Amino acid sequence: MSNQYTRHRGLRPIVAIGAVSAVLAIITIAWAAQPAAQNPPAAGVTTWSAAATHIATHPKPGMSGTDLPAPGALSGNQQHAALIRKGYFLTVAGDCMPCHSVAGEPAYAGGRAVGTPFGTVFSPNITPSKRDGIGRWTDQQFWNAMHNGIDPGRSLLVFPKYQYPVMPYTAYSKLTRADVMAIKAYLDSLAPVQIKNRPNTMVFPTDLRAGLLAWRLLFFHPHPVKYQPGWSKDTRHGAYLVQALEHCDACHTPRNIAMASIATRTLAGGHITAQSWYAPNITNAKSDGLGGWSNHAILTYLRDGGDMTHGAPFGKMKTVVDDSLSRLPKQDVSDIVDYLRTVKPQPSHAPAIDNTALVTTSIAAGKTLYHDECARCHQNNGEGVNNNIPNLAHNQALWNGNPDNLIAMMLGGFEPWHHNQSAMPRFGAILSDQQIAAITNYVRTSWGNHGKPDATAGTVARLRPLETIEIDLNTGSTQATLQHGKATRRFTDITGRAWFNGNRTDCRMTASLATEYGKRPVQIAGACADHGNQLIGLATINGKTKRIALRLQQNYTANHITSLRLYGPVGKGRTLDAQIALTTVNY
Q1: Calpha distance 232→238 (Å, rounded)
Q2: Measured on CA atoms in the order 383, 387, 390, 393, is the torsion positive or negative?
Q3: Which of 346, 372, 397 is the last residue of a domain?
Q4: What backbone torsions phi and psi does residue 568 show, to the nearest 5 degrees?
Q5: Does residue 321 sit within a domain?
Q6: How would you write 254-281 as a 3-class SS string?
Q7: How far apart are CA 321 and CA 305, in angstroms?
Q8: Same domain, yes or no, for 291 and 360?
Q9: Is the peptide bond before 205 cis (omega within 30 degrees of 0)?
Q10: pLDDT tens-digit profile of 139-159?
Q11: 330 and 369 together in one domain
Q12: pTM
């Protein structure tokens, strides 16, 4: 949903929808309890060759990402083993792991916070745990969840348990039943994880899932992927990947006030709900979309993490590339490119600029600030540093559409483009809203970039509460102790990184606390829970790993997060208390 809507304005239509659905429910309750019609037969991934569905378990050399959990022990039944391997491909292509996993916990154990204007939804555990996951789900229940957006159970005793549309079931409803069953077969092959689901924190009346009936009546119309006459087999494969598995529509299509995708603006660029990121236009438009890119350039961006001509993926798209697209066979990503070429060109939405004098002043100020703060890394001409610092010149993702992406990166910083390379510092802690807006306007209009100088101090102020902070932990002023009875260990060295998304209920941290020169480290890795007031994860002490649930206090100065306090038991009578400073200086 666009951030131009405030929380209260955004709630009105949802309250209205809840009221309408209460009336409709009396009339349609019998209908609502029935699952939607199944897709007619269509060609899915389970009809592809094994070579076309090979998955790279490890990240490419130099790229970020995590090791993907390979299928568990394959049975002697060759047909079922092949189904599990296809399910592995489908689950990775569907980018399920990043949403259903958090740092410090096993993959697919859930707990990832997804912010909305109406509260936070936590992803569920989808391991085959019979107590906490989907181990007791039947094939039909799993199909209903993926295809119809309905979980097992009831809401208000009589209504189906509708899923919130943060789960992209609107796209997954296009999957064939055979492919959905393959996904289940892969998930069932994994080790069960006994981690309870975290309760959602949606505000009334959006916490009543029965109220989603009206939304579904208005906006959910399941159907298989629609193929056009004359499309090649490769283009059809690409359409299936884009429309169903990769659910590109979820980010790259703008949403209306009820958080439903606007069908007439498909893939024309959209703001990611409750975050500071903008997913750019990926239609075949020459000026605003991918029409001016070569097929090789798009393939490089999607599968190899970009280059020094068109820049690099960032924000949520970097995760999609690192953990999904880069792991697929080259031919499959090439098929995606073939399909994107067929998408109807559409212009990106950009507001008109009506103050020429103010714009000119802003660009001039931005030029000076850029050379003072940015040129040492991105170079005077915006060309960047090969394989280390992405280019700003000709980087369409920075000037296409609105200025939110560039602002977001300056506000919160950003992880390195390649593994063990330079990170983007967090300028939000040291530059004012007006200064960040000025740099944004200069970059978007310089070196051949075709963006509009439409950033204002108000634009930056709107995005500050939603910024994604990715920042290093600071050794200099960190104070930490590990208490064990009367013995106390004091730590003088800390390394690691913290990530804070949106409303700060979604965070994760990896840290290594040690004595001088990294001796005898205590490793901490975890993710937020309890509205951002708890860190749940793992601690490794003296080579032994224990599950932890530590209290987390986020400390602010002038509305900027400057430090964290992490404290609580870490197993065997030990108590950790760490006041962790965050690096705020730029390079």
Answers
A1: 10
A2: positive
A3: 346
A4: 145, 180
A5: yes
A6: CECCCCCECHHHCCCCEECCCCCCEECC
A7: 7
A8: no
A9: yes
A10: 999 999 999 999 999 988 889
A11: no
A12: 0.79
